[in-house]
Amino acid sequence: MAEESNKITLVDEEGEEHQFVLLNVVEMDGAKYAVMVPEEEYSDDEEQEAFVFRIETDEDGEEILVNIEDDEEFAKICELLDEIMAEEDFDEDPQ
Known about the structure:
The chain is an alpha+beta fold. Helix content is 23%, strand content 42%. The chain has one domain (2-92).
């Protein structure tokens, strides 16, 4: 995982590089999660589909991103992210 400010390059199974923008890092149940969108789809003006990865540490002490394969864990992190987004929307509402 190469990182430059909030831009991250991920390499897929075929060795192709993909650029992502890191939107947020959140904690849940003692684990950290990275919320990212593909760089080419990133826009401040509209909602976009985000990817969520669990952040783990490998045997060399490097942080790595891991797909969330457990449906219950994925549902919980999505619920947390929905709550965070609702709070941000509420904070931005002038009423």
